[in-house]
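Please decode residue identities from the backbone states below.
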């Protein structure tokens, strides 16, 4: 795991295709101090509000919190590299510091939990949802480390992401799909897998299929209404 050294707002970052005006598209928090700094409800609210540039004096009336208290929390977020200074304006009697989140989206690297996080290789049931969660967690941590290394080297990280949606008419159709997919995927892997080639580089392929979240929640709500019709509006 590549770890950032020193204070984040003092880091030297090379421009990349995944930054715009010095602002990352995403940032994966892989340091416990940064995670702790972002955890409180107030600081999460500040991070949400500062997706667009603003200052303590601009946030104070909207949040109903004093400018002095907000300045303290904003300084802590800035020290952890979660927000960045974008402008300073002279106001009557003070300097207004305009801040913005340093990334559009934040994710937490599961490795922050240390030994509490689970290694997907420890699961026997590769069809379990627990294995999928563990594999997805490893994917997040691996790609976060690779992105950091690529940025330091001034290079672009080559990845492939394909996401789509399939509506299966029945569980039987889902099983048939999985069987056919396994066969075709095995044929592709056999065709392109060349570990002995001179410039061969290993890539990890993760394939995951799960019900769409909102469809499951809608179905649960429908069943609840059928069981307790008196709760319908």
């Amino acid at each position: 795991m590549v770890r950032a050294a020193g204070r984040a707002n003092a880091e030297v970052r090379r421009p990349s295709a995944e930054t715009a005006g010095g602002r990352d598209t995403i940032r994966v928090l892989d340091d416990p101090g940064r995670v702790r700094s972002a955890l409180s409800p107030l600081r999460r609210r500040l991070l949400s509000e500062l997706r667009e540039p603003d200052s303590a004096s601009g946030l104070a009336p909207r949040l109903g919190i004093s400018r002095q208290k907000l300045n303290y929390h904003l300084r802590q977020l800035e020290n952890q590299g979660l927000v960045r200074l974008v402008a300073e304006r002279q106001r009557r009697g003070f300097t207004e510091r305009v801040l913005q989140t340093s990334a559009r989206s934040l994710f937490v690297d599961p490795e922050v939990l240390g030994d509490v996080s689970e290694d997907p290789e420890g699961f026997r049931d590769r069809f379990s949802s627990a294995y999928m969660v563990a594999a997805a967690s490893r994917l997040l941590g691996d790609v976060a480390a690779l992105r950091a290394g690529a940025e330091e080297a001034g290079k672009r990280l080559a990845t492939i992401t394909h996401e789509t949606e399939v509506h299966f008419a029945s569980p039987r159709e889902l099983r048939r799909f999985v069987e056919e997919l396994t066969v075709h995927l095995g044929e592709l892997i056999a065709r392109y897998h060349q570990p002995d080639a001179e410039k061969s580089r290993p890539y990890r392929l993760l394939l995951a299929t799960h019900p769409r979240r909102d469809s499951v929640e809608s179905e649960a709500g429908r069943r609840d209404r059928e069981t307790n019709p008196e709760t319908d509006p």
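Observation: The first strand starts at residue 19 and ends at 20.
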